[in-house]
Amino acid sequence: MTYLPKLYQAILASATLSEDVKSLKKPSSTQSSYIKTRGTRFSTCQPITHYLLNAEEMDKATILYSLLKLHLIRGKTIIFVNTVDKCYKIKLYLEQFGIPTCVLNSELPATIRCHSVNQFNQGIYDIIVASDERALEQPGNEKQQGDGKKSKRKKDKESGVSRGIDFQFVANVINFDFPLDAQSYIHRAGRTARGNNQGSVLSFVSIKEKPLLEKVETKIQQGQDISVFKMYQFKLEEVEAFRYRAKDAWKAVTRIAVREARLKEIKQEIFNCQKLKSYFEDNPTDLQVLRHDKALHTVRIQRHLSDVPEYIIPPTLKSLTGITKKKTTSESSTAKFQVQKSNPLLSMQFEGFGKKKKKK
């Protein structure tokens, strides 16, 4: 502020009007005015399609694995959960199937979070698992409670990825955990369909989350007769073969594995953060080498899980997945032999000139 002239006009725009934002007016101006705009209604004409899918915890994991592995969901995707632990559980779960993901939560350094978002926008990786903790959405929760006890450790509000962060060209938003209120749902959905782009939001809803859905739907509709949400057409019985794989992989991600993954990730990213401050200042071109979607290896990975056998793919989805059966060595040899046999020029065998018999 000391470098600004004595007379100037300033406009400060903010998505949220918190006490921190209000405090900026004190050193800058004695005469200031607030212009606060409110959205009239949740627009149903925006290029976002909102889907619902009723599923319990284990079914959610199976469906997520099926959608990603069968390429039914394509493009940049953000998977939202409500806790940091669930964030790492999803990462470790998908890691077993050879699906790389990047984690974004309040525990990571701000520099690393910004770098992760930049790499995501550049297309270095396509899937982010983001924790949208309630403490980030309701700053009042960080204040002291009535009994004099302090709440849990203060979290970095800037890491709330449901709002404020500029994700580019996001095609899909998946609410693995349904958001806790309508405002959070709107901010999550707002991560996709930026500008003139299309986007979709798929929300998994369990029986316990039904009341949250009803509150969100009532708030969003605001008296409109037409519901914003559509039921996602997905038959769980068709991917029953995926359930066995998903069940074993989901159970393999224990609390101990999640805790070890969190500690390992924090140590790794703090080390990366030190690199960002020193080495990469002198070598900006090497910044792309630093990736945030590397496997944590706190859960035993079985190589066969990364492949999808043709026999477990539903017949109705084989034409959509684009997954082709890999030919074995024997099948390739047989195919080559059949091609050679059908071609008369290749199948003709020359026995050579026979020796003439001598006349007696």
TrEMBL record:
Keywords: ATP-binding, Helicase, Hydrolase, Nucleotide-binding, Nucleus, Ribosome biogenesis, RNA-binding, rRNA processing. Its EC number is 3.6.4.13. One of its GO terms (cellular component) is cytosol. One of its GO terms (biological process) is rRNA processing. The keyword Nucleotide-binding applies. GO terms for molecular function: ATP binding; hydrolase activity; RNA binding; RNA helicase activity. It is found in: Nucleus, Nucleolus. Residues 66-237 form the Helicase C-terminal domain. Gene3D superfamilies: P-loop containing nucleotide triphosphate hydrolases. Its main location: nucleus. It catalyses: ATP + H2O = ADP + phosphate + H(+). Residues 136-159 are annotated as: Disordered. Belongs to the DEAD box helicase family. DDX56/DBP9 subfamily. This is RNA helicase. It comes from Aromia moschata.
